[in-house]
Structure prediction request, 296 residues.
Amino acid sequence: MAKKLRTLPGPGPKEAPDTGNPTLCGDDGGIHVVQDGPADAPALVLIHGFAASGRSWDLLVPMLAKSHRVIRIDLLGHGRSAKPAGGAGYRIAEQGRRVGEALDRLGVRHAVVVGHSTGGSVATALTERRPDLVTALALINSGPRLDAYIPQGPVDRLISLPVIGQLLWGLRTDSMIRRAAATAVTRDIDIPQAIVDDVRGMTYRAFTAASHAARRYLQQRPLPDRLATLGKPLLVIFGGQDRRWRSSSAADYRIVPGATVEMLPGVGHSPLLEEPPRTAGLLLAFAAAHAPHTGR
Prediction:
């Protein structure tokens, strides 16, 4: 049974306007939610990737919210959500549970769920726990298995070491974060300040606990194996020039019955930044085919 959530002082989610920013509170602290679009439209839930927040979808939301109730949730440890010192709450299964509870609190009974990168693991965990809630899934550049990950260099290894990692974390600057974030794109685009701010806003404990949780979830069982037994429509979008996950691994998802895999040539790990209109178009077509008549 889902744990009861309460809202912080102010309008509750049911009284929130179509564009609202409620914060839902549970045992782990506040979970920040942003809603856009008509309240009675089909629900489209967007789950961000590791070290990001709901703001990573900013370029897509205006296109998606014309026809959908778009719900963005900052995962625990990310964005404007709580960042507890403990590690258990960062497990992918717990993140999925928390998303389901937030949707219950918002009165959402059915939704198409979209996850970017690690957000795809959270979307999968949500579906494993709540198949009644998830109508269909779309995964964007979500690595299917751990050995598809492309190592990001020495800093990627050092950051996980307790003493050295915490020291490096304390020394990070905007320019350092932008250099690290550059591996998420292949085109000459400016890394939005919101992305930099999201990384700077994370605590070292949240960063390392969430990273470990993401690796552990894939170690336990690859995403395609999990999805193959769930019986949900699946759309996989993958940048053909991803520098974080081997793009060839997208073919692994074809073991899921009825899965559609869309490869975007010349695009890296973040189609949300590199190809917003095309990405939104694919999501809208998929959601139109599989969304219920109402978001509630």
